[in-house]
Design brief:
By secondary structure, the chain is an alpha/beta fold. The chain contains 13 helices and 13 strands. The protein folds into 2 domains: 188 residues, 3-Layer(aba) Sandwich (Rossmann fold), CATH 3.40.50; 169 residues, Glycogen Phosphorylase B (Rossmann fold).
């Protein structure tokens, strides 16, 4: 079928104006790889015309094969629910995140997790109620919903009422690290160069379970390793947590270059989350050769496989024991680094792009539009 015979694909570009956390990372990296794969003469040469629609002021990502267009006058949710719906009315709308306009039925959105259902205490009531309602409505009427892991697929079914036959599964990657130059000045800034330290990365909200790290360090007492925590938080979405420890150093927001240097120099990486839909940080750590000690959250185990040491996130004494075991055995770090790199090699943003394009092509190729 020729490309011109298909309706166009519009991509919700709101994320391009947002700060880069997990979902935005997934969107940006997958989009860039989709653009590569849509090159003339490639496997998707007959794909529908693709255009990113974004609010005024959104930076143009400068892609080669995907058009970019500013539309409307509003911003945020108001833009997404009204002006985006209007400008995408003649085609299929695709969103890399949960949110999409309720007025536009022919669209594909992406479910990353069901945190608003599973860990409601981690979100503000306003955010929780709106997302519950919106995601349920979207998956009910959409021809397809994308999930980023097998675990998130099951969560979309159990928590949002999605139909199994209308869910496609993609993946995530870590190759953005290859484009980043490590900035090791952060090591000198915080007296970390040449020193053993445990690294933890994420936003400081209850679901990320930094309290478990604090308790584990307390249990280890004078034998506790130095723990460096990198990452900011969004108080508009997450409830705050203020746990700390004399062994914990909170760096706040760090640049991508600084984060890469931390991964490369940390003794190990700890990921204690109660709940995740995928888990990019432990994947980044494994790709960097940093041994991973992670919680037994289902999605994290799906991502890390047998390349990590695991502990029950509700039992800080288990984390304390894993840290003790890790630092006691000098042969463990190189073995885990090798296993982590091998595991990370199974994931890529190119694979994510291919899976997304295949799913979208199937929807675009359906005859007619849904009622």
């Amino acid at each position: 079928m020729a490309a011109h015979s298909k309706p166009p694909l519009f991509i919700n570009g709101r994320f391009l104006g947002q700060g880069v956390t997990g979902i935005q990372r997934y969107a940006r990296e997958t989009l860039a790889c989709m653009d590569d794969q849509l090159a003339p003469g490639g496997a998707y040469r007959n794909f529908a015309p693709v255009t990113i629609l974004a609010p005024q002021g959104t930076p143009d990502p400068g892609l080669r094969h995907i058009r970019f267009q500013h539309v409307g006058r509003l911003s945020g949710h108001a833009w997404e629910q009204t002006e985006l719906a209007w400008h995408a009315r003649r085609g299929l709308l695709f969103t890399f995140a949960f949110a999409g306009p309720l007025l536009h039925r022919w669209q594909v959105t992406t479910v990353h997790d069901a945190g608003v259902v599973r860990v409601p205490e981690a979100y503000t009531a306003k955010f929780r109620l709106w997302y519950n309602f919106m995601v349920r409505s979207l998956v009910k009427h959409s021809p397809l919903t994308v999930a980023v892991s097998q675990f998130s697929k099951q969560e979309a079914i159990a928590c949002f009422g999605a139909k199994a036959e209308r869910i496609g599964v993609t993946t995530e990657g870590w190759q953005h690290l290859d484009k980043i130059l490590a900035d090791d000045t952060i090591l000198d800034k915080h007296q970390l160069r040449g020193q053993p330290f445990v690294l933890a990365v994420s936003s400081a909200n209850p679901n990320k379970n930094f309290g478990s790290i604090v308790k584990a360090l307390s249990l280890l007492g004078s034998k506790a390793p130095r723990c460096v925590v990198a990452g900011a938080t969004n108080s508009a979405v997450f409830q705050q947590t203020t746990e700390t420890s004399e062994h914990m150093v909170k760096l706040g927001y760090v640049s991508d270059g600084e984060l890469k240097a931390l991964y490369q120099n940390a003794s190990c990486f700890v990921f204690p989350s109660f709940y995740e839909g995928f888990g990019i940080p432990p994947l980044e750590a494994m790709a960097s050769g940093c041994p991973v000690i992670a919680s037994t959250a289902d999605a994290v185990k799906e991502t890390c496989g047998d390349a990590a040491l695991y502990f029950d996130p509700h039992r800080p004494e288990q984390l304390a024991q894993r840290l003790t075991d890790f630092f006691k055995d000098p042969a463990l770090a190189p073995a885990m680094a090798q296993a982590g790199r091998a595991r990370a090699a199974q994931y890529s943003w190119q694979r994510s792009a291919t899976l997304n394009l295949d799913l979208l092509q199937a929807v675009l190729s359906q005859r007619g539009r849904p009622a």
